[in-house]
Amino acid sequence: MKGDDRSARCGRIKSQWKSVQEMNYLDSITLTKTLPCLAEPGRIIVIGKPSQPLTDIIPYLATLPDVIVYNPITCTVTFRRQHGFMTLYTDKVYITKVKDVEEGLELFKALVDAVNATWAHRAELVAVTAARSAPRLLDIWALLPQTNCKQCGESTCMAFAAALLQQKRSLTECLALSADPSFGERRATLEAML
């Protein structure tokens, strides 16, 4: 009798394990190539191949923060990361400004976890169907007060716009934009863009 109980329990555990496996979208990303990073000498670009095409997950990944560009036609998404960029295609992944192969493998593992977490929560997300791109420097600058007052800590509004795009400054640091109610609409637009 106990043998039957044990096999029943094992069968239940096996079926529970299978359902967890079915929730995962991606098993791994395999390193296929490294290239020298021209943007930062001494660092590399790692290129990997996902265990299955990313076609179905990319529209959900495009909902995440730090998306710079999403193109639904080519099914690609590019993210800003602390040191560089990460671009996902349906059949490959590029990560720039990586210290070494070991860091690249760690980044691939973290990406697999992020993909699987996104897939597990896809019912709560609205897949992006329209192209997205990061705001351009001149678009940001055009909405700033353009007083070059230096109160934000930058020498010009153009420098402040660049710092906003690089996430080195916050919109709240522009005192003229915060203090003047006539800039309310511009501020709301900038908040939506950033």
Set out the fold topology.
Elements: H1 2-23, E1 29-36, E2 44-50, H2 58-61, E3 67-71, E4 76-81, E5 84-88, E6 93-98, H3 101-120, E7 132-133, H4 137-143, H5 157-165, H6 175-179, H7 184-193
Antiparallel strand pairs: 1-2, 2-6, 3-4, 3-7, 4-5, 5-6
Helix pairs in contact: 4-5
Can you give me a brief rundown of this structure?
The chain is an alpha+beta fold and 194 residues long.
Q: Secondary-structure element sequence?
A: HEEHEEEEHEHHHH
| DSSP helix fraction | 25-40%
Mean pLDDT value: 85
In whole angstroms, how far apart are the ends? 64 Å
Give the uncertain stretches in residue-range form. 1-21
Return the structural class.
alpha+beta
Structural domains: how many? 2
Kindly estimate the percentage of residues that lie in beta strands according to DSSP. Answer: 15-25%
Please, could you describe this protein's structure?
With 194 residues, the protein is an alpha+beta fold. The protein folds into two domains: 26-132, no CATH class; 135-193, Orthogonal Bundle (3-methyladenine DNA Glycosylase II, Chain A, domain 3). It is 40% helix and 20% strand. It is built from seven helices and seven strands, in the order αββαββββαβαααα. It has helices at 2-23, 58-61, 101-120, 137-143, 157-165, 175-179, 184-193; strands at 29-36, 44-50, 67-71, 76-81, 84-88, 93-98, 132-133. It has a seven-stranded antiparallel beta sheet. Helix 4 crosses helix 5 (157-165). The longest helix has 22 residues, at 2-23. Mean pLDDT is 85; it is low at 1-21.
